[in-house]
Write a structure and sequence with these properties.
alpha+beta, globular, single chain, six-stranded mixed β-sheet, 6 strands, 60s Ribosomal Protein L30, Chain: A
């Protein structure tokens, strides 16, 4: 087993390099990818579409897609999605984006919770995923 902590150059670095975007565990036959929670920020570090769950979901999954691609994975490799929302009333807007990106039946395992606040003002969603990618 080999553990790698990574911040792929294809995605903006995390705030102050305080954490790794991806924890990768290489195992026989493939790898397990655990992505840090992502919020909707532009390359400049500013929140995209403050307060707009649908637009923030689009940006978050754009970032997640880039992180997965840097490790040879796609949305089809996602096993679990954990979502933190400041208002469960935004679930419909968020869910519309997820259904488009994860059309399979059944979709990945999922946990969604309402949080009082996220660490960046204007951010209404934070999403983290776990994915598995096969070797080869």
């Amino acid at each position: 087993m080999k553990l790698t902590l990574d911040n792929p150059k294809t995605v903006a670095a995390p705030f102050g390099d305080r954490f790794a975007h991806v924890a990768r565990v290489d195992l026989p036959g493939g790898a397990l990818l655990m992505l840090a929670g992502q919020v909707a920020v532009g390359d400049d570090g500013r929140v995209v579409a403050p307060g707009d769950a649908g637009r923030q979901a689009e940006r978050i999954f754009e970032i997640i897609g880039g992180l997965l691609a840097a490790h040879g994975a796609t949305f089809a490799d996602v096993l679990h999605i954990r979502t933190f929302m400041t208002d469960l009333g935004d679930l419909a807007a968020y869910g519309a984006v997820r259904r488009r990106l994860f059309p399979g039946t059944p979709p990945p395992a999922s946990t969604t919770v309402q949080a009082g606040a996220l660490f960046l003002p204007g951010a209404v969603l934070e999403v983290e995923v776990t994915a598995a990618v096969t070797a080869g």
